[in-house]
Amino acid sequence: MVPVTEPTTTPRRRLPARALDTGPDAPWPVRHLSARIAEYVHRMPGVWVEGQVVQLNRRPGTTLAFLTLRDTDADVSLPVSVHVRVLDAATAPVQEGAHVVVHATPRFWVKRGTLQLEADEIRPVGLGELLARIEHLKRVLGAEGLFDAARKKPLPFLPHVVGLVCGRESKAEHDVVVNARARWPQVRFEIREVAVQGVAAVPEVTAALRELDADPAVEVIVVARGGGSVEDLLPFSNEALVRAVSACRTPVVSAIGHETDSPLLDLVADHRASTPTDAGKRVVPDVGEERTRLVQARRRIRAAVAQRLHREQDALAALRSRPVLARPELLLDGRGVDVERWRAAARRALDDRIRAGHAEVSRLAAQVRALSPAATLERGYAVVQRADDGAVVRRPEHAPAGTGLRLRLAVGEVGATSTGSPGDTGRKGTSTADATAAGGVPRFTDHPAGRAAPAAAQEE
Length: 460
Hints:
By secondary structure, this protein is an alpha/beta fold. 38% of the residues lie in helices and 22% in strands. It has four domains: 44-125, CATH 2.40.50.140; 131-285, Rossmann fold; 288-335; 377-459, no CATH class.
């Protein structure tokens, strides 16, 4: 710690003991604040820090080397000073772009107000360890569902504008553009040339992706890079870049490296192309193939329509050849014969029914006539009734002498008067009556009471 002395020209005054006690009237001088910061930082113990070497300045004839250690997932860096013998003692040469783990102690320089790390040990991160970390990140992201097939978006059939993220004047750009325009000349590209390896790759590729994703005219984005070593392709397995691709609303095609290369970007992208050339073939259809398919489709449609017409024509001809359509009157003639047959049968049935009814009526009429009182009267009997009340006389005592009687015959009626006979009074059930009709005054005697003599007896 560098001691801080107060200048003799400055008037002595009491400084606040704590930062909370400072104010407009009692501020801390800059030197005092720097000293406090240095005191706090110097109390920190040594710490192991991981990062990527961005700049390495090693001057000949000096014992100290200076480098910048940058975070691989964020735009954050810290300066580091290291003794030359520490660099030489590393198990592998430390170069720019290398991933290292540094054991360092924080130091705060009061005069410059800067923070710096003093390293006493550097360990390069080997390829095996990098691959192990990528595999661990792969499992973590896979557990979060970033690689699920359900999240992947389909590619548009014919995009009008294709976004392309590639290196500056790279062969990958040429392969994508040339192959895509050879298949569909009208396709347009929005190209963003960025760093595809090194410390600037992750932020530049991420920024280009977000810019193209925000452009509504871009319908698909291709991230292309040529082949390279595992270390060169490490940015495309970076967690920040992988999450940025997962957050894109526009379909993303990954075309990183060759067929054997498999960065994490291939897993999170909506579609993976083995090479940039393959990506150019995937994003747009082949105009020649589409025209061939169109011609074939038109032929199939024409053949299907012709076949349908022939089938319907044959069916129509078969229908027209049927007798019912060739001579429609045959159907009516057959129905006419049926109607006449049904009419004759109905007429016969009606006549039979009428005859049977007539016979039944005649039979019933004969029975009625046989049972009718009028038939009895026609055989010569008469109904004797009292003239005053119309009561039927059934016994002699019902019609004493002098009682007016009415005799109901088969045809018409006659009046009569009952007369008594002394000689007949002793015989029960007999009486004597005189009947006077329009043609004479006949007498009825020795007949049961209430019943007149037959016509033959009257004549006697």
